[in-house]
Design goal:
The chain folds into two domains: 2-185 and 332-340, Ribosomal Protein S5, domain 2 (2-Layer Sandwich); 189-327, 2-Layer Sandwich (Alpha-Beta Plaits), CATH 3.30.70.890. It starts with a strand and ends with a strand. The chain is globular and about 60 Å long. The longest helix has 23 residues, at 226-248. The protein has helices at 23-27, 78-91, 115-130, 137-151, 159-166, 189-198, 210-222, 226-248, 251-265, 275-286, 312-320, and strands at residues 2-14, 29-46, 51-56, 61-66, 99-105, 169-175, 179-184, 199-203, 289-294, 302-307, 325-327, 337-340. The protein contains eleven helices and twelve strands. Helix 3 (115-130) packs across helix 4.
Length: 342
């Protein structure tokens, strides 16, 4: 039997960072994000009876273990081995059946599109389908979060797993004791079309290590660094403003809130921006961009720009000349899905 699964990557629109502990435990966090039609993929197949095999098709990682001896020590395969080990522990009584688990993604690690967390969601969805486990969106996202943050001790927030599980545009609330509320938004079709015409995604070519940036942010919140905490308060409020702008079709408000969120985010940790990012932002501004945001934790990855659609070609050409890569996309109303291949 072959099972395939995919889960959508996401754009963080506002509030990113307030879903990271300890801030969300102390103050509660709000995040506004949207899934796009770029995905992480997982494939699960029956094995040969004696071994368990893992492979990242896009990065060349490969390992084979005897049943009962799977470890998560290899950082290049730990998302795959971690998801497999957790499913075996929680649902199979610790038994490690013979499987072949493979993965690939439309975005590189460190892209700022939530690629690592989205991959864990896709892996859990595929394994759940293989073993006929009745996991809903909340259970799928929470289990993926526990695998990544608990089992594998990878620093980060909570929004990516829920964005991947649910899809669409969501206003998310994060509270203490891992309580999460996902509020799907019904965005008018013309608003979606205008956003797709106005937003330009640019990959800087630099995949940053989000864990290091998030660790700095978490330390600032835990130590009561007032400038950082005030910036997170501002981000939380801007998530509410972003939700209202999207529901009302206020595209000027969308751009203002996106830019305000980026300015607040830069105050959360020193490593969120750098001279390269600042230079690209200045170039974009000179070529029609009215708002800028770095997707994800910061430090590199994808940058998101808002412009008048009539300036899109000029802006795109200027960015392409910088040596990075433009990514065409559409918003995606569908969350994680798994199916059995014929």
């Amino acid at each position: 039997m072959t099972v395939r699964a995919r889960a959508p990557l996401r754009l963080g629109l506002a509030g990113g960072g307030t879903d990271v502990a300890p801030y969300c435990d102390l103050h509660g966090g709000y995040v506004m994000n949207a899934a796009i039609d770029r995905h992480a993929y997982a494939i699960v197949e029956d094995g040969d009876g004696d071994t368990v095999e893992f492979q990242t098709l896009d990065h060349g990682g490969h390992a084979r273990f005897r049943r009962g001896e799977v470890t998560t020590a290899d950082p290049g395969l730990q998302l795959l081995t971690g998801a497999y080990a957790r499913i075996c522990r929680d649902f199979l009584g610790g038994e490690q059946p013979s499987l072949r688990v493979r993965s690939y993604s439309d975005a590189p690690p460190g892209s700022g599109l939530g690629s690592s967390s989205t991959m864990v969601v896709a892996l859990v969805a595929a394994l759940a389908e293989h073993f006929s486990l009745p996991l809903g969106e909340y259970e799928l996202a929470h289990l993926a979060y526990e695998i990544e943050r608990g089992d594998l001790a990878l620093a980060g927030g909570k929004q990516d797993q829920y964005a991947a599980a649910f899809g669409g545009f969501n206003f998310m609330e994060f509270h203490r004791d891992d309580r999460v509320i996902v509020n799907p938004l019904r965005i008018k079709d013309w608003v979606l079309a205008e956003l797709e015409a106005s937003v330009v995604l640019y990959f800087t070519g630099v995949s940053r290590e989000s864990a290091r940036i998030i660790d700095e942010q978490s330390r600032n919140a835990a130590s009561g660094n007032q400038a950082s905490v005030d910036a997170m308060h501002a981000l939380k409020e801007e998530a509410v403003q972003m939700k209202e702008a999207l529901l009302k079709g206020d595209l000027a408000g969308f751009a203002r809130t996106l830019q305000a969120g980026w300015e607040a985010k830069k105050r959360m940790a020193n490593s969120i921006t750098n001279p390269m990012i600042d230079a690209v932002e200045a170039l974009a501004r000179a070529n029609g961009a009215v708002a800028t945001k770095v997707s994800g934790a910061g430090g590199g990855g994808f940058m998101m720009f808002v412009c008048d659609p009539c300036d899109r070609v000029r802006l795109s050409r200027a960015l392409a000349a910088e040596g990075g890569r433009l990514l065409e996309f559409h918003f995606n109303p569908t969350g994680a899905v798994a199916w059995r291949a014929p």
